[in-house]
Design a protein that fits this description.
0% of the residues lie in helices and 24% in strands. It has 68 residues and is mainly beta.
Length: 68
Amino acid sequence: MCQHQPPCPSADSPDREAAHLVAHFPEQGWSLLCNGVLLFEDTGELLPDGRIIAPHRPLVTGHVTTAA
């Protein structure tokens, strides 16, 4: 699918999220990458072959503070 030079990472690559955006629909919560991956707002992914990658947001280890 990708016509970029150098080519974007494939959908099977661990860095697949680095591919260029083809379509972006923030109001619907998803984006299409040029390698065919659907990337969802919650960081879940749907690969071109139908496999699902569960959301993988980084764990927050910072401190919570409140305003006085």
